[in-house]
Amino acid sequence: MIKLYSFGPGFNVTDPSPYVLKVDAYMRMANIAYENIPNVDNLKESPKGKLPFITDGDTAIADSQFIIAYLQKKYQVELDFGLSAEQKGVAYLMGKALDEDLYWCLVYSRWEKNDTWPLVKKAFFGSMPFPLKFFVPIVARKGMLNALQKQGLGRHSNEEINIIADKTFSALSEVLADKKYFFADTPCTFDATAFGFLSQFINVSLNNEMNDLARRYSNLVSYCNNIQEKYY
Ligand SMILES: N[C@@H](CCC(=O)N[C@@H](CS)C(=O)NCC(=O)O)C(=O)O
Fold first, then answer.
1. Pocket of ligand 1 contains residue 65 by CB under 6 Å
2. Assuming Cys at both sites, which of 22, 105, 122, 139 could form a disulfide with 126, CB separation 3.0 to 4.6 Å?
3. What is d(CA 209, CA 116) in angstroms, rounded to the nearest whole number?
4. In this structure, are strands 34-38 and 59-62 parallel, antiparallel, or unpaired?
5. Cβ–ligand 1 contact at 64 (below 6 Å)
6. What's residue 33's pLDDT?
7. How many angstroms separate the alpha carbon of residue 63 from the centre of ligand 1?
8. Smallest Cα–Cα separation from 62: which of 76, 52, 75?
9. What is the model's pTM?
């Protein structure tokens, strides 16, 4: 059986990582049986030092995009069957916007913002033994803030970062409009990505400015709730 190595539930969602939740949702949408192995220590076993990764027998695959490509090929998943070539191209690029841009807004909203950081610290490091629970979060936060600077988003003001996140929420809301899924009557690969990311803003038990921005789009809220209800 396929094993999905994840962090485990956090902030009231199945996984606080959008990439893990993307793969988890994908396998549910594609009706692929799997076992979820939740443990932050999975990071130490991961071929690329990040989560998610999966194992299928003796094969280990890391990174959500390669996991999905592997599953698509090996299990002949046809979630994107009904999409035109143009829709497939647009869906791919939209997925990249979430993976490579919205992700950093999420990192900023959780790790940089002083109103949310204490909750992140408690959720991610609260169960660590003394004295690790004191210095590991400090080192981890420093690393994330450094990554935000290097990536570039961390150099913008709070207001500018909220504008960047809101532009993505607004664009997603426009594309979704009153449809149930983004491109067809049934979910496609992009829906797994969209749910994996949007849930991190909408369905989580966090209430920062960015959560408020996302929750203003009622069609995105219904979208997440419908997928949550149907597949979880
Ligand atoms: N490109 C990767 C990104 C995975 C990723 O960044 N995972 C983060 C959690 S959201 C992680 O494992 N971070 C732990 C670390 O960097 O130490 C994917 O699509 O799977």
1. yes
2. 122
3. 10
4. unpaired
5. yes
6. 98
7. 8
8. 52
9. 0.97
Domain ranges of the chain: 2-74, 85-231
Cβ of 46 below 6 Å from ligand 1: no
Question: Do the beta carbons of residue 145 and residue 111 sit within 8 Å?
Answer: yes
- Take atom 1 of ligand 1 and give the residue whose Cα is closest: 63
Digit-coded pLDDT (tens) for 71-104: 999 999 999 999 999 999 999 999 999 999 999 9
- Residue 213 CA to residue 19 CA, distance in Å, equals 21
What does the pLDDT read at residue 118?
Answer: 95
* Ligand 1 touching residue 17 (CB < 6 A): yes
Pairwise pLDDT comparison (130 vs 30), residue with the higher score: 30
Can you tell me which atom of ligand 1 is nearest the CA of 50?
Answer: 12
Domains 2-74 and 85-231 share a fold: no
**Cα atoms in the 13 Å half-sphere on the side-chain side of 101:** 16
Residue 11 Cβ inside 6 Å of ligand 1? The answer reads no
Q: Model confidence over 34-67: pLDDT tens digits? A: 999 999 999 999 999 999 999 999 999 999 999 9
The separation between the first and the last C-alpha atoms of the chain, rounded to the nearest angstrom, is 19
Q: Is the peptide bond before 18 cis (omega within 30 degrees of 0)?
A: no
Instruction: Pick from 50, 142, 148 the residue to mutate for probing ligand 1's pocket: most ligand atoms within 8 Å of its CB.
Output: 50
Ligand 1 atom nearest 62 alpha carbon: 20
CATH code of domain 85-231: 1.20.1050.10
Question: Could you confirm whether domain 2-74 is CATH 3.40.30.10?
Answer: yes
